[in-house]
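Sequence in, structure out.
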Amino acid sequence: MKDLTPSIERMVDIEATLGIRLNALSAFLDDDGDLKVLGEAHFSKPPGEDSSASVHLMAYDAEGRVVGKNDAYIGSSGVTFDAFEVSIYDLKKPPVRLRVFLKRA
């Protein structure tokens, strides 16, 4: 298993705008080409019942091309902390850069 944690790029400006801070990020690529990114989401205000957010993961090859993407929903009503896992399976090329960012749904 290869540790790709140093290749993670966060979009800090988006985190600040949404009031959600990503923390404790790690990334691992296994021998089958499956990529897994794990981390924590800290909300400045607890999300409501009808508000949600998602963590998006994009993987880029050495030429800067997107080779995979996926997302996962985060947040529970009234709770200011969540843990997440986002995976991309069967990558044909090993990623050299990973971008992790947030979106409001």
